[in-house]
Amino acid sequence: MNAMIWVALCCLTTPQQDVKEIFRLDNSSGSCETNMQVETVDAPFNPQDHKSIVFYAVGASGLTATFEIPAKPRQAVLEIDHLSAGAPVEFGGNSRISILVNGRPFMRAWEVGAHGYTTDRLTITKMLKPGRNSLQLRFVGGQTAYWLRRLEVQCLLPPGTSPGGKVELTKGRGDYAVVVSKPTFMDASWRKVVDALVKKHDASVIVFSSQVNDALKTLAQVFPQYACFVARPEEAGRDFVIAVHRMSRHLDADPYTDVIWGILTGYEASDALRIARRERPLLVTRAAAGYGLDLNAFEEGITYSETKKNTKWVKKPGRPARRLPAPDDTTAALVDVLNAYRPQLFATSGHATQHDWQIGYSYRNGQFRCEKGHLFGLDLQGRRFDIDAPDAKVYVAAGNCLMGLIEDRDSMALAWMHSAGVDQLVGYVVSTWFGAGGWGTLERFVEGQGRHTLAEAFYLNNQSLVHRLVTEYPEAASVNLSRWNVENHPMLLGELAAEHGIGGREALGLLWDRDTVAFYGDPAWEVRPKQVIEPAWSQTLLRDGHDYVYTLVTHRDGRWRRPPMAILPHRIEDVEILASENGPGAAIAPVITDNFILLPLTGDFAKGRRIEVRFRAKDIPRK
Prior knowledge:
By secondary structure, the protein is an alpha+beta fold. It is 19% helix and 36% strand.
């Protein structure tokens, strides 16, 4: 529900060898620049001066900034450039804020009393501590709005202190990088997770000391095919997921994500270690779902309807799916599916939060909840059914709000990993209303019939969203949304559209989904559906030296719901398209990046259609 932007820390050493570190939030350039983790509630960018954020809702508007200090500061000053009255004070204009440092009140109902911007410097030395610190500004009263243009926390640290932003690299020979914070890396139990990934993938290790975005330059130097961000639960929140999305698009100059990535975490380090040690590919033959997943795409499966009471579908090997009666309350049945039926894919939709899943969408049903890392069902009679399903599986919360959000240790995502055996999880860290990020990933995974792994489906689907933005809505493609609390702020979407000049539902929906779907797990672990039906189309990519031939053939009539895409076997550059044929006399304009090809096809297609793209390119040497 909140804003978060990351940049490199600003550090320097004074002549006396004291270390000065500055944490800042600066809106004065017309965009938000910060090296802190910043969350705002009801505090949008100011449409009047375009150089500040504005607090307008008494008792609701506020800002929380968190930052890491490597040592107890010898001196710390909070400098704020702000305006506390939108109208002259003598005519009743005033606004009051309270400031808390690490949860402790520092200024209560402070009225600056300035009609124009003023700069205040406040000493906060005694309130800071080594490690993670928080600064909160709350709008507590007044007749006008409060404008915040800039704030800085200026810390003078003891001589010899290593400033934040330091990044360490241990180079591996594999095309895989592990990115991890220094505190996580130094924790013995989590270090085992890193070591397991290094052993499995011969991975490089990038250790950052402060914020994940500090690793951007080093990750760009390594430029691996896969990147795994190992994080403890307290690190892996919404802002972390969004930061990984955004930084992974900036390893080179094009607008697309440059690595196939995943976030590896768990309720306990042992969960992440189990996932890291998975080596044998998982072939999905058994699927289960809490909505009407097409079971004919699998060898066998069970689904329960979220919209039609007393309805389930069952498919057995070699037979089509058939509809059967189901109990009024399917809580116990779904728990039994996980515990005894042992599906390799589980998928859900419907109402959810980071703390529960409401099984019924159109009718009353039970729910799934979590407690201390354990997932359990709770039926309408209040009976609890524990879930203990350690078999390897993947979980796609394609249509659920917030299922991917790790807000605290009692979050559903962690419980799925801990007691339900989930080794890869795809889910939203915000409320979903557009659906392209979640449903697009599941559709690419299932309909391809083994064409893509789950990680590849997640990656390619996200690139297709970026492609639509840069080609159809270029004015919106560079926008980074910063507020997400649509579930308790029903006017938010309209405000975001007006704030950023976004016209239409599609552009706003693509922006909403682009950075808010999480992929948890080892992105190089291979999970594919077993092919049981012929897909609507197939593709091949052949190489002869520097020449490539991509061929697509349709096997039945259909419609292009998502653009066909393929991951290239090597990174390439200096691409020259030699020919592109979309049937007799027709041409197509493929998008070929350094690591994938996309065909921007739309509309209907007929059986027997053949599309061929021939291109020439040079390999990019591995770094």
